[in-house]
């Protein structure tokens, strides 16, 4: 009996510690993503300042190129005499417009405005960061949507000496104001929260893991009680500690892979000229134990951070071959692309793994293409060699989320790939009919010169498809106009 009690007590402590650890990891991951977004915003502001220019077609094209090369920005704008004169969305602003009212004054003269209607994009709201003569917009909900749905959280900005609650998804955190930003935890209304802050913008996330049931009803506790009963006589502490730890976030993805919470869906890729399905992109979906979807942007970056991306990629490859082996054997011209990181390609075990799996599935290498999601040029010589190896083995390599400017051109000629996938934010540039020709033809010419296949992502409307079909009749395309991602069983139907 004593063993049962001790095991239960140890289990309760262990569950609470794991929940705090997991909330801390999710909050860290949030701050890493937020740092990437704000870093991108600051770099873009610096780039606008670096080349002062009049607002003409060239400057509009440059602003658009900056947005296209970013991952999270929606618009970039230039100001003159305190007025907005040029934006990546509508080009020249005539007459010049007042910048949005300032909600927060950040470090280094940065002014931040929340929930601002976006110029030239009706119905769309942004968070705007302005400094000097440069301004960038980020989608209004980005910082809210980035938070993992398993968290009860609040976003707090430091406004002078006081905290300012920007958003919370729980009534328990309403009224939170004081966040020191230096302590990793705080207690509010009797509940302990993890605190992680983003220094550059003096914003913090205050979070705890949402608890669907009390600690005593948690599966870990049930396991603990059972083990206490089973192992009480022989002392089961080491094993119960193992059980408790196995719930920490870094193992959640692994558990999710095993338990079926992770699955792969497929978004068809069509030939623009006849809209025939010629391939598909494999995309991961995670529905957690509470039935909530977890955003791939959030858990993929978590996997990259924890060094687990290799396991995730291997999981996806195995699942693709399981799901689609029959279909791919019937259609050798059909190619499924899998997202990979630079680390995957540079891992010496990756290609042997892929080749062995393909051989076991009786498929050729050309059935699986690889989309390189990272744009890092670090280690580019090593990366170039790794790309050359997988291409020699027969896999097509795609650069994902491609924008355009000359640095992209040099990046491409260094890396030698087969295809580019044009970032879906590019579609936004097509809203401006008068300047629509400024970027797309550059990309098409660039792709032709380098002999690259072009895949246009994020096509939602007929006019976008028609525009690209005229410009690049041989291009491939992907987007909701043709199909949203579907289950494997629907891909070849
Ligand atoms: N608004 C709009 N969106 C469209 C449209 N067509 C496709 N999309 C979405 O655009 C994303 C395309 O994938 P990505 O650029 O590779 O971007 C992916 C990729 O970078 C990453 N990801 C997803 N699955 C995997 C994976 O298995 N491994 C790795 N390493 N990354 C993955 O997560 C990112 C987001 O994936 P998803 O949320 O599935 O979002 C997908 C897709 O659902 C459209 O017409 N309109």
TrEMBL record:
<dbReference type="InterPro" id="IPR035919">
    <property type="entry name" value="EAL_sf"/>
</dbReference>
<dbReference type="Pfam" id="PF00563">
    <property type="entry name" value="EAL"/>
</dbReference>
<keyword id="KW-0973">c-di-GMP</keyword>
<dbReference type="GO" id="GO:0071111">
    <property type="term" value="F:cyclic-guanylate-specific phosphodiesterase activity"/>
</dbReference>
<dbReference type="InterPro" id="IPR001633">
    <property type="entry name" value="EAL_dom"/>
</dbReference>
<feature type="domain" description="EAL">
    <location>
        <begin position="246"/>
        <end position="493"/>
    </location>
</feature>
<dbReference type="GO" id="GO:0005886">
    <property type="term" value="C:plasma membrane"/>
</dbReference>
<dbReference type="Pfam" id="PF12792">
    <property type="entry name" value="CSS-motif"/>
</dbReference>
<keyword id="KW-0812">Transmembrane</keyword>
<keyword id="KW-0472">Membrane</keyword>
<keyword id="KW-1003">Cell membrane</keyword>
<dbReference type="InterPro" id="IPR050706">
    <property type="entry name" value="Cyclic-di-GMP_PDE-like"/>
</dbReference>
<dbReference type="InterPro" id="IPR024744">
    <property type="entry name" value="CSS-motif_dom"/>
</dbReference>
<keyword id="KW-1133">Transmembrane helix</keyword>
<keyword id="KW-0378">Hydrolase</keyword>
<protein>
    <recommendedName>
        <fullName>cyclic-guanylate-specific phosphodiesterase</fullName>
        <ecNumber>3.1.4.52</ecNumber>
    </recommendedName>
</protein>
């Amino acid at each position: 009996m004593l063993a049962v009690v001790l095991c239960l007590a140890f289990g309760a402590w262990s569950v609470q510690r794991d929940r705090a650890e997991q909330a801390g990891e999710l909050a860290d991951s949030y701050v890493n993503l937020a740092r990437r977004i704000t870093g991108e915003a600051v770099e873009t502001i610096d780039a606008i300042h670096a080349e002062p220019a009049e607002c003409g077609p060239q400057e509009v094209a440059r602003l658009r190129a900056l947005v296209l090369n970013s991952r999270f920005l929606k618009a970039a704008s230039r100001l003159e005499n305190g007025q907005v004169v040029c934006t990546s969305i509508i080009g020249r602003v005539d007459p010049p417009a007042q910048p949005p009212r300032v909600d927060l004054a950040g470090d280094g003269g940065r002014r931040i405005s929340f929930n601002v209607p976006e110029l030239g994009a009706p119905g769309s709201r942004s968070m705007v960061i302005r400094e000097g003569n440069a301004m960038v917009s980020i989608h209004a909900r980005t910082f809210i949507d980035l938070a993992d749905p398993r968290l009860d959280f609040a976003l707090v900005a430091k406004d002078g000496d006081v905290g300012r609650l920007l958003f919370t998804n729980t009534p328990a955190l309403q009224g939170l104001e004081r966040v020191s930003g230096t302590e990793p935890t705080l207690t509010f209304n009797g509940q302990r929260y993890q605190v992680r802050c983003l220094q550059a913008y003096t914003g913090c996330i205050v979070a705890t893991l949402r608890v669907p049931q009390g600690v005593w009803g948690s599966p870990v506790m049930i396991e603990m009680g059972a083990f206490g009963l089973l192992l009480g006589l022989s002392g089961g502490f080491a094993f119960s500690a193992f059980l408790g730890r196995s719930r920490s976030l870094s193992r959640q993805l692994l558990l999710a892979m095993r338990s079926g919470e992770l699955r792969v869906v497929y978004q068809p890729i069509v030939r623009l000229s006849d809209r025939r399905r010629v391939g598909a992109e494999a995309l991961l979906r995670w529905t957690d134990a509470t039935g909530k979807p977890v955003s791939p942007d959030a858990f993929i970056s978590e996997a990259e951070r924890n060094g687990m991306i290799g396991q995730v990629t291997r999981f996806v490859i195995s699942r693709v071959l399981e799901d689609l082996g029959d279909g791919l054997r019937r259609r050798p011209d059909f190619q499924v692309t899998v997202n990979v990181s630079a680390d995957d390609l540079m891992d010496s075990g990756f290609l042997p793994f892929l080749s062995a799996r393909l051989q076991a599935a009786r498929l050729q290498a050309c059935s699986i293409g690889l989309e390189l999601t990272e744009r890092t040029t670090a280690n580019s010589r090593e990366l170039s060699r790794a790309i050359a190896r997988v291409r020699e083995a027969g896999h097509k390599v795609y650069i994902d989320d491609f924008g355009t400017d000359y640095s992209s051109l040099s990046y491409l000629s260094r890396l030698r790939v087969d295809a580019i996938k044009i970032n879906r934010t590019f579609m936004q540039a097509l809203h401006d009919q008068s300047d629509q020709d400024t970027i797309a033809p550059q990309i098409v010419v660039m792709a032709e010169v380098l002999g690259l296949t072009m895949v246009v992502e994020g096509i939602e409307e007929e006019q976008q498809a028609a525009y690209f079909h005229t410009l690049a009749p041989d291009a491939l395309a992907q987007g909701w106009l043709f199909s949203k991602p579907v289950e494997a069983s629907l891909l070849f139907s």
